[in-house]
Specification:
Layout (H helix, E strand, L loop, with lengths): L1 H6 L7 H8 L10 H9 L3 H4 L12 H8 L5 H7 L1 H9 L3 H4 L11 E8 L5 E6 L2 H8 L9 H9 L4 E4 L4 E2 H8 L2 E9 L2 H9 L1 H7 L2 E4 L4 E6 L9 H13 L6 H16 L9 H12 L19 H7 L5
Antiparallel strand pairs: 1-2, 1-3, 1-4, 5-7, 6-7
Length: about 325
């Protein structure tokens, strides 16, 4: 400071002179150190620097939210408006300002999507970016045109693109994709049955059913639990609706139990089915580790107890 005072005799400058000397500078970093020290010492920096353009301005939530609205994906927001992204993270509002954005996915996660047409044609696939995949499907300039685009041209029908699942680990997504039905069932419903489906859509989804609305009183059954793939899925679905309808709306646990019981019963090994010895052994092992192996989900017995006397009576050895 003494050295600077020898070069710049600050005492000869009035406050007005110092303020005037600051005016040519647009940014605080450009103000000479001796001048900046002088205005701070005289406590006039607010006045002297009132015209300065801040390199780190005070942002507001409204300003950052407006900036975030420009982007559809969070990764683009982070790359192109990093100042707003960092501000939102620092102040703990990143989820709030990004709530309108869609998940772009990554190379390790996939979602299952479906493209359907009114004539029943359906295409099911995996993607890490739904928007990009949709654009590629409908790009007529692609060297190998998508079967979706080809069918749209041939049938003159508009495709309906829908995301069926959240983004999942790739292995899990592939397993779920195998549950998707290549030829979806179109199931016509009464107004009452349609209402039951709407009331219990989360229950169906949790169990592995993938449902789309199809017209006013119909649904398209796109996917079913893997254990149901070889069943008459239409009949199973309608039976589940009948089962749910017999339970009071408020009895949530009972409804879930009967729902699962109906699926389990339909998927169970039935009488007269041919099983190998290995299959029988495996079935018995699974049965014996259950909390209650003595009845089926509907309460019917899976085993009976017979004493030696009862057995002898069956063979007329004892009266």
């Amino acid at each position: 400071m003494k050295k600077m005072n020898r070069r710049h005799n600050i005492k000869q400058f009035s406050n007005e002179d110092l303020i005037e000397l600051c005016k040519p500078y647009k940014h605080s970093k450009d103000i000479p150190r001796w001048l900046y020290s002088a205005i701070r010492k005289r406590n006039i920096q607010d006045i002297a620097m009132s015209h300065i353009i801040s390199l780190n301005p005070k942002r507001t939530l409204e300003e950052v939210t407006k900036e975030a609205e420009k982007y559809e994906f969070r990764v683009d927001f982070q790359k192109k408006s990093n100042w707003a992204y960092l501000w939102a993270r620092k102040h703990g509002v990143i989820d709030e300002v990004c709530k309108h954005m869609r998940h772009k996915g990554n190379l390790k996660k996939r979602c299952i999507y479906a493209v359907t047409f009114e004539d029943g044609y359906a295409y099911v696939g995996l993607t890490c970016n739904t928007k990009e995949r949709w654009q590629r499907h409908m790009n007529k300039c692609e060297q190998n045109q998508s079967p979706v685009y080809q069918h749209a041209v041939a049938s003159n029908l508009q495709p309906n693109f829908s995301q069926l699942t959240d983004y999942l680990p790739e292995k899990e997504a592939k397993e779920k994709e195998s549950q998707i039905m290549l030829l979806p069932d179109i199931i016509n419903l009464s107004h009452k049955e349609k209402a039951i489906v709407k009331e219990n859509v989360d229950l169906f989804k949790k169990a592995g059913f993938m449902i789309e609305e199809f017209g006013e009183n119909a649904i398209r059954l796109i996917g079913v639990p893997s254990i149901c793939m070889d069943m008459d899925t239409k009949e199973l679905f309608l039976e589940i609706l009948d089962t749910i309808d017999t339970v009071a709306i408020t009895a949530k646990q009972e409804k879930e139990d009967r729902f699962i019981a109906t699926i389990a019963c339909k998927a169970a090994v039935k009488a007269n089915m041919d099983l190998s010895k290995e299959e029988v052994d495996n079935l018995m092992k699974k049965l014996l580790v259950l909390p209650n192996p003595f009845t089926c989900p509907h309460g019917r017995p899976t085993a009976i107890k017979m004493s030696k006397i009862d057995l002898e009576k069956k063979f007329n050895r004892r009266k």
